[in-house]
Design a protein that fits this description.
single chain, alpha/beta, Rossmann fold, nine-stranded mixed sheet, two-stranded antiparallel ribbon, 43% helix, elongated
């Protein structure tokens, strides 16, 4: 059975994801109600809506199931991780150097064990698999292996094996995906296919002391394709063992760094290893630090100082503490003295001295803190640091080895608490977690549970943060709208009062002008009547009365009709007179306006002229005097 803590973390994640999904649905409904209410005209600075990027970031967590995606150096590393993940032999036992081509495998939860092959277009492939012959516990190797290109059925090579099992790990919709074997140019397609429609928890297994060149290239691509998602790097032990043998065999020579201490630092700056001639055996090193056999084959041995690149790494520790004069012969190793090369794979670390040591608390274990006495771990750490999966240790942080390592010590005295205090400035609104390096394979279940907890928590926190940002924008919209309403409520009465005062002032001003200009107005009216009097009389004679019967002789039948004719003539005369007087008044105003406009135009032209001639001495008052 899988680790209870891992299933518990998966259950919590699914529960929180469902709650987040409910909040997301309510948020979308609320935003729609706000937008269709008509209370906002769209002129506000912010609006109640979810951006496409935000919606995608949230739905990728609440809609897609948590999925353990397993990558690795070799099919053997992947198979060991799968079997350890399920705590039973689901994959067959493979040799460490096995070169079989594994197909992509996806595990689902089901009531019983079933296996099917599915093509990319969701068609099931009918194939005579060996697993169909009877009940099974371990998947047959022949079914997992991709057929050769010469096979008649090429569709089988593209099919994905979908396996259902009634396993506690797969409850709550959890999936496990094992990446297939591939050619280098297919890696991007493979990664996209593995993490598609999934909330991935990435696991990478390796078996060598150093990551090979192809591994580094693939990890670089993986970081780009997954946007630097954290990865659990797992050191997989040899077949038949659950631990990595880090000591040389009995009687085998130990490297010159076996007893080095940090005090012997600041040396060894060359890629060529210096060995005393009295050493029982010698080891040749390629320029990149990998062990070179006498036949030109390359194995995995001690990494070179250049390959490590870390001042804390044992491979970069100096030779100062060695008594160089006491060495009888010190010479670089060349092809002539490489006959005694031991091609057997030698691991350089003690299995009890691993990065997953209990000296580090559960909450603080990560790849930012690592011991200084590991050969392979140091070089893998340096390679991962250069790839950007981990950060370089902060020199301001205290040495974890100098702190209390007791599990019962308070959180304030643990290295993790001290690192957390020192890295407060690195925290952002969105939560991020670090990649982990697991050297002790026996701790896989517990470390995976902790790593999964942090990774899934980061997904939830990031999605919740994005959703909270949309809520904040909506609240800001309401706050700004309320502020505008309050401002209008305060300012509008004052505007009305100001307008009323100005209207009263204008009325009094016009009344004063009319009183003071009464004689001029009378004269203007009299002059206008003299000018248009004859025209008004002629127009009145030809006036066509409305609603009055006038005979051909110009007579009316009643006094009422006479009064109606008088009213219509009066309105016509007053209208013509008002129009004429108003026209003259407007003409005088236009003349005054033209006078003002002309004066202002001349001032501006004068300012421009003076500014062109001598901009420093241009005076507005001089222009106004003109």
């Amino acid at each position: 059975m899988s680790s209870p803590s891992l299933t518990s973390e998966l259950s919590k994640f699914c529960s929180y994801a469902n709650r987040l999904k409910q909040i997301f649905a309510e948020t979308s409904k609320c935003f729609n109600d706000i937008n269709i209410s008509g209370r906002f005209d769209g002129n506000q600075i912010v609006s109640a809506e979810l951006l496409k990027e935000e919606e995608l970031a949230i739905t990728s967590v609440i809609e897609y199931p948590p999925t353990f995606v397993i990558f690795g150096q070799t099919p053997y590393a992947k198979s060991r991780i799968v079997n350890e993940l399920f705590n039973k032999d689901v994959f067959p036992s493979l040799e460490e150097d096995s070169e079989i081509k594994l197909r992509m495998v996806r595990f689902y939860h089901g009531d019983k064990n079933t296996v099917s092959l599915t093509l990319p277009d969701d068609f099931d492939l009918v194939d005579n698999l060996e697993v169909y012959n009877g009940p099974w516990v371990t998947l047959p190797q022949s079914d997992l292996e991709i057929p050769d290109k010469g096979s008649a059925d090429e569709a089988s090579g593209l099919a994905v094996m979908e396996v259902t099992q009634n396993h506690p790990l797969l409850r709550y919709g959890v999936q496990v995906v094992v990446s297939p074997s591939h050619r280098p140019e297919q890696y991007e397609e493979v990664v996209n296919k593995c993490i598609e429609y999934a909330t991935p928890v990435l696991i990478y297994g390796f078996t060598t002391d150093r990551l090979l060149e192809q591994d580094v290239v693939e990890l670089h691509q993986l970081s780009r394709l997954t946007n630097m998602e954290p990865i659990l790097f797992v050191r997989v032990p040899p077949p038949g063992s659950r631990t990595v043998d880090t000591d040389p065999p009995d009687g085998a020579p130990r490297g010159p760094y076996a007893h080095m201490t940090p005090s012997a630092s600041m040396g060894l700056h060359h890629n060529t290893l210096l060995m005393p001639s009295s050493s029982p055996s010698t080891i040749a090193y390629a320029e990149d630090g990998s062990r070179d056999g006498g036949d030109g084959t390359r194995g995995v041995g001690y990494p070179s100082a250049a390959g490590c690149g870390n001042s804390n790494c044992p491979m970069s520790l100096g030779m100062a503490s060695l008594n160089i004069e006491s060495l009888h012969h010190v010479r670089p190793l060349n092809a002539n003295n490489s006959a005694n090369i031991n091609n057997k794979k030698i691991h350089k670390r003690n299995s009890k001295d691993t990065l997953a040591s209990s000296d580090f608390s559960d909450d603080t274990y990560n790849m930012n803190t690592y011991p200084q006495h590991y050969h392979s771990a140091c070089c893998v750490h340096e390679q991962l640091r250069r790839l950007g999966y981990i950060r370089a240790p902060d020199p301001n942080l205290p040495d974890p080895s100098a702190s209390s390592t007791s599990p019962s010590s308070s959180s304030s005295s643990t290295p993790g608490a001290q690192r957390a205090l020192s890295w407060q400035h690195l925290k952002r609104d969105h939560l991020s977690t670090d990649s982990h390096l697991l050297e002790r394979f026996t701790d896989f279940q517990s470390r995976l549970a902790r790593f999964s907890r942090r990774t899934l928590q980061a997904y939830l926190v990031n999605a919740a943060t994005v959703l909270n940002n949309s809520h904040t924008r909506c609240l800001n919209m309401f706050i700004l709208s309320a502020f505008d309403m309050a401002r209008d409520m305060l300012i509008t009465p004052r505007k009305l009062e100001f307008a009323r005062e100005k209207e009263e002032e204008l009325y009094k001003s016009l009344l004063g002008i009319s009183v003071s200009k009464l004689d001029e107005i009378k004269e203007l009216i009299a002059t206008t009547i003299e000018v248009i009097g004859n025209c008004i009389v002629a127009e009145a004679g030809e006036f066509d009365f409305i609603g009055v019967d006038v005979s051909e002789t110009g007579q009316v039948s009643s006094t009422r009709e006479v009064q109606a004719c008088t009213d219509q003539i009066r309105e016509m005369v007053l209208g013509r007179l008002n129009h004429a007087v108003a026209g003259k008044l407007v003409s005088s105003v236009d003349i005054l306006r033209d006078s003002y406009t002309g004066t202002l135009t001349r001032c501006l032209e004068s300012l421009e002229t003076l500014d062109k001639d001598n901009p420093e001495e241009a005076k507005t008052t001089d222009a106004l005097k003109q």
